[in-house]
Amino acid sequence: MTAKRRLIIGMTGATGAIYGVRMLQVLQGQEQWETHLVISSAGVVNLKHELGMKRAELYELADVTHGINDIAASISSGGFKTEGMVIAPCSMKTLSAVAHGFGDNLISRAADVVLKERRRLVVMPRETPLNLIHIRNMASVTEMGGIMFPPMPAFYSKSDSMMAMVNETVGRVLDMFGVDVAGLYTPWEGL
Ligand SMILES: Cc1cc2nc3c(=O)[nH]c(=O)nc-3n(C[C@H](O)[C@H](O)[C@H](O)COP(=O)(O)O)c2cc1C
User: Fold this and answer.
1) Is the CA virtual torsion 98, 53, 74, 1 positive or negative?
2) Contact residues for 72 (Cβ-Cβ < 8 A; gap 6+)
3) Residues enclosing ligand 1, CB less than 6 A?
4) What is the C-alpha separation between 115 and 145, in angstroms, rounded?
5) Which ligand 1 atom is nearest residue 46's CA?
6) Distance from C-alpha of 52 to C-alpha of 45, rounded to nearest angstrom
7) Ligand 1: which of 49, 91, 128, 130 to mutate, most ligand atoms within 8 Å of CB?
8) How many angstroms is it from 114 CA to the middle of ligand 1?
9) Beta bridge partner(s), residue 143
């Protein structure tokens, strides 16, 4: 049996819980992937507020779940092999922690590990407008090899629903890890 490919998904208290949820849904249907989910307390608040979803319902979408304060979890060590991590959505607070190597919870610690092991880190920062420290923190993470992927819809796709826009963003992020995203959105092929 081939080993499953592991992807860590961190969800924080920025608006856009749907991005993390949709990502887990897409990966749930793919046998070769194993998702490791960790959500912050503020993330749980937004999950309830934006989607009417409880933590337990979210947990059903993941293969493995970890507590935000479980700094002894598997994903807190580089010895535990993963393909990388997506933080979807990423608050400015967590972005700051990642940019400064402040691993005081399992999301910032796991991201720190992914960066030190030179694995793929995709951060979906969400705030507007941005102040200078937000921009500097994004630059720092980019300098360390992380990928800033702000969830900004592309209007050229002429999506007819909010879910279509979410699917396109989620599809493009997962595509970066080599996940099969066929059918999730239509890639641009020119005019
Ligand atoms: C409804 C709601 C929406 C929020 N949206 C954002 C946001 O888009 N970006 C952000 O940086 N913080 C946002 N926040 C604030 C964060 O949740 C807060 O800074 C929190 O401490 C982040 O902690 P975490 O990164 O550990 O989840 C929002 C809070 C609430 C209640």
Assistant:
1) negative
2) none
3) 12-15, 40, 42-43, 45-46, 49, 91-94, 126-127
4) 7
5) 1
6) 10
7) 91
8) 23
9) none
Q: Where are the beta strands (DSSP E) in 126-169?
A: 147-148
Residue 91 Cα to ligand 1 middle (Å): 5
pLDDT tens track for 128-148: 999 999 999 999 999 999 999
In the reported structure, the alpha carbon of residue 127 is separated from the centroid of ligand 1 by a whole-number distance in angstroms of 9
Work out which ligand 1 atom sits closest to the CA atom of 45. Answer: 31
Q: What is the pLDDT of residues 47-62, one digit of tens each?
A: 999 999 999 999 999 9
Extract long-range pairs of 161-166: CB within 8 Å, 24+ residues apart: 166/18, 166/19, 166/22
For residue 6, give every residue at least 6 positions away whose Cβ sits within 8 Å of its Cβ, in sequence order, or none.
Answer: 33, 34, 35, 36, 80, 81, 82, 83
> Tell me, what DSSP letter sits at residue 2?
P
